[in-house]
Design goal:
By secondary structure, this protein is of the alpha/beta class. It has one domain: 3-Layer(aba) Sandwich (Rossmann fold). It is about 45% helix and about 15% strand. The chain contains seven helices and seven strands. It has a seven-stranded parallel beta sheet with strand order 3-2-1-4-5-6-7, with helices on both faces. Helix 3 packs parallel to helix 4 and helix 4 packs parallel to helix 5. It is globular and about 45 Å long. GO terms for molecular function: oxidoreductase activity, acting on the CH-OH group of donors, NAD or NADP as acceptor. This is Short-chain dehydrogenase. Belongs to the short-chain dehydrogenases/reductases (SDR) family.
Length: about 250
């Protein structure tokens, strides 16, 4: 089945690397006009260049409601409307409970949950019937992994938000779903404060823990996002689609 998003417009938050970039790329390849956001101006420009002419890069801090509102205004100016919102921006730091500072706690919650919540709120006026919201949750919302308490809690909040907003927005004809990645080979492993050797060791351990005995690729999550964003999933809302090689459920 070929999915076409011709004449559709989409916003992908956190779209410069990893899963976010892969999602933006799949949407562009399906014919959508895509706006991506990120905090680093150089990465935003590089990602937009790689995506090509249908893509627009915007520098924005997902922790700032004002910045999110500004992105929504730019989407209105550039596109007139939004058909698809992929609320993907997220971070993680690995730390046991005794090591978690208030600043680290607040930052993860602000980016992973608060940012997604307000991205939806600010973009809703741009969305009509048939619109689709896809959030990036995580398999860790259902697994107990040491040193991942804050990240896991933030993603459990995202999963809860999907259920609530799916019910709340159904009368407006807007679907809300999420993808729950498991071990995906993205730069996030190198950003959680581990040495290169420890990051590689973690990749290997998580790959072996899956039924498929390998890491997933960002493009595999991107294709799941494409499905949920498209009319191919017209009767799907409130779902959390696991893309984890069987890590969680088997």
């Amino acid at each position: 089945m070929e999915i076409s998003l011709r004449n559709k417009s989409a916003l992908v938050t956190g779209g410069t690397t990893g899963i976010g970039f892969a999602a933006a790329q799949t949407l562009v390849e399906a014919g959508a006009r895509v706006m991506i956001t990120g905090q680093n101006a150089e990465r935003v420009q590089a990602a937009a260049t790689r995506l090509g002419s249908p893509a627009i890069g915007i520098v924005a801090d997902n922790r700032s409601v004002e910045a999110i509102a500004a992105v929504a205004r730019q989407a209105r100016e550039r596109f007139g409307r939004l058909d698809i919102l992929v609320a993907n921006a997220g971070v993680t730091w690995s730390a046991r409970i005794e090591e978690v500072s208030e600043a680290d706690f607040d930052a993860q919650m602000a980016i992973n949950f608060k940012g997604s919540f307000f991205a939806i709120q600010k973009c809703l006026p741009l969305m009509d019937r048939g619109g689709s919201v896809v959030l990036t949750s995580s398999c860790l919302d259902a697994k107990g992994v040491p040193a991942m308490a804050v990240y896991s809690a933030s993603k459990a909040a995202v999963r809860s938000l999907v259920r609530t907003l799916a019910a709340e927005l159904a009368p407006r004809g807007i679907r809300v779903n999420s993808v729950a990645p498991g071990p995906i080979d993205t730069p996030i492993y190198d950003k959680i404060g581990l040495s290169s050797a420890d990051a590689d060791r973690l990749r290997d351990e998580e790959a072996r823990a899956t039924v498929m005995k390998r890491m997933g690729q960002p493009e595999e999550v991107g294709r799941a996002i494409l499905f949920l964003a498209s009319d191919a999933a017209a009767y799907v809302t409130g779902a959390d689609l696991r893309v984890d090689g069987g890590w969680t459920d088997i």
